[in-house]
Every structure is written in structure tokens, then in C-alpha cells.
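Request: Have a read of the protein record below and say how the chain folds.
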Amino acid sequence: MAYKKFDFLMRLALELGATEAKVIPASRIVVEQRVLLKCRVGCDTYNKKLMCPPFVPTVDEFKKMLREYRYALLAKYPARAQTEEDVGRSLLKHRYDPSASAEMKEKASKFWSDWTKDKKRVHLALLELEKAAFNKGYVFAMGFSTGSCALCEKCNVEAGVCIHPTMARYPEHAVGINMKKTAQKAGMPITFPFPGKPEAISLMLID
């Protein structure tokens, strides 16, 4: 089987905390222009992080790059962050709605803090997978982060220079990847809105 050669990556993903890992044809990754609407409208990191739009490749540019890859590794990680259903509905609202209760704001803020730690943990695992692929000769292996970059507390966007250039990666959605559809097609669906705990799926292109 063509994917047998990537067993070392799937094993490593599990060792790094993933509950599931799978290699799929890169052609099965779903890329849509509309995904960037979520970046432009309603996302508070748009134009505020160097790894987010408008500083990243356009959807059309990424589609051309994607055609140069044959495989992709998906790895699903459980989050340690968790929330109650009512907080889940207010996770975004609490930052903008002055009518949200102090208790709700506190619970939601704790979730976001924990989720940021989860994103960093998954990001570091992704970098380990990328390094392992590179060392096996897949020199163009390239990972994409889950959610906006969380390496720095505040991005160096005003200076226009990333202070972690070897570690920072574009978020999947920033280049138009519809991860919900991609994960569904790969047979490892994710639920959103999530019931209590989110699931993070990292994606790495391999060739």
C-alpha cells in the first residue's frame, strides 16, 4: 500500500498524543474561497498576526501549491480545555457583549486560556512530525497550525517580521482549507460546535 511508507509518521503522531492519525491523498483536501470570510468577518486576529490573512498566500495561490503535493497527514488530538454547553455558546460573545455575566466571562476566559495551551501543544507536535518527515527525505513537508498562531502573546505584526520564523506556521483555514469537510472525507469527523471539549486536527502536506 502506498501509505505504508508513512507508518513512521502515524506512529509518531500517536506517541505525541494524537488519538488518530491518517494519511490521505492531498487531492482530497477541501479548499474553498468562502472559508476566508470567517477570517475577514468576525475574527479578531485578521490583519493582526503575520500568519493570518492578509499576510498569507491567497486561496488561489495555495490551490496551485497544493497541486504539487501527493499526500497529507491528518492527526487528531483531544483538548484538555473543556467547557459547559452554555459557556460554549458564549465563548466568542463574552468578549464583545457587556451584558455577559462576570461568571460567564471568567469561565469563557479560562477556556480560551486552556485552548491556547492546547494549540501550542499540538503545534509543537506538528513541528516534530514535520522534522521527522524532512529527515526521511520528504524535504517539502509542510504543516499547518490549528487555529491562529499562538507562539507569541502578541504578534510582531507592526514590525512585519516574525520572531519565530522557523516555528510559525499558517493556520489551515487561513489559506482556505475547510477542515470540517476535509476531516469528514478522511473518515475522522470533527464536531462543531463542540459538546464540552474541542478536538484539534493538524494537517501536514507531504511529498
